[in-house]
Design goal:
The protein is α+β, with helices and mostly antiparallel strands. It is built from eight helices and 13 strands.
């Protein structure tokens, strides 16, 4: 395989990984490429054979301690030839000594374990068609009106590393809408909804309790005008699963959240919606 070359994607090439993910049924968001590029420009890799794309992977370094791996895809007609392992190893090398997280296909857990990943919990994608809830929006404000420092501080309770550039890009991306609840001068709940190839995805959805999460979820659905909605929920948050089901959503997909080492303690009881299976 001397004609196989791995390199960092240019910013305008990340859309290729997005398109391949869409073809695999992962239903990415319409503005995901620009948002994802904001984290680690060197973290998206492409493998080429004779100049043609063969494989993709991302391993974005959030800080000196944590990275997240995604978009691990080999072109269907070239699988089983070793290209996947070559680009996988390049992604792991990009992370260096950092702890790496991923959301993997459940059936591939044993393969990931061979690379040092251990199961933390399952993430469950809920989906369904909903109407705009008949719910009060009293006290609800636009997420863009919340100081970024408050959002970053709250995000630090549910994500293993600082991600200010990503949060700014995610909240401000075209078509994305965010809602938040502030009480007593503190951010109590917030979330973002974005248009995808199919319907809308909500994530993150973070709240102090189920009632606040329900209020934010209702406001986000109203922002989209209802329709087909997807919400990715940590399987260990029973209140989040119950909330999704109360809106008529049903499980449609599951991933295995895995890490190569210890991460800071996270308040997963506050996570009612995961931001992204690709970037954590």
């Amino acid at each position: 395989m001397t004609d196989f070359n791995i390199r960092a994607m240019r910013a305008n090439e990340i859309s290729l990984a997005i398109d391949w993910a869409a073809a695999e049924g992962w239903n990415p968001g319409l503005a995901d490429d620009a948002c994802f590029a904001s984290v680690d420009p060197e973290g998206f890799l492409i493998g080429e054979r004779d100049g043609a794309p063969v494989a993709t992977v991302s391993c974005v370094n959030y800080d000196a301690r944590f990275a997240f791996l995604g978009f691990y895809i080999v072109r269907a007609d070239l699988r089983g030839k070793g290209y996947g392992m070559r680009i996988w190893n390049a992604a792991i090398a990009h992370a260096g000594a950092r702890v790496i997280g991923l959301d993997g296909v459940v059936a591939q857990q044993d393969n990931y374990k061979k690379s040092g990943f251990q199961l933390a919990y399952a993430n469950i994608r809920y989906g369904g068609t909903v109407t705009v809830p008949d719910a009060s929006r009293a006290g609800m404000i636009a997420l863009s009106d919340v100081p970024m420092a408050a959002i970053e501080a709250d995000d630090a309770t549910v994500f293993p590393a600082p991600r200010p550039a990503f949060l700014r890009a995610w909240i401000g991306a075209p078509g994305h809408a965010g809602c938040a609840v502030m009480r007593d001068g503190r951010l109590r709940g917030w979330g973002v909804i974005r248009p995808c190839r199919k319907g809308f995805k909500i994530g993150p959805l973070v709240a102090d309790d189920r009632a606040t999460a329900e209020a934010v979820l209702s406001a986000l659905i109203a922002e989209a005008g209802g329709g087909e909605i997807f919400l990715d929920v940590p399987g260990i948050n029973r209140e989040a699963m119950a909330l999704a089901e109360s809106f008529g959503l049903a499980p449609v997909f599951e991933t295995a959240r895995m890490y190569t080492g210890a991460i800071p303690p996270l308040r997963l009881e506050r996570v009612f919606g995961v931001t992204s299976f690709e970037l954590g």
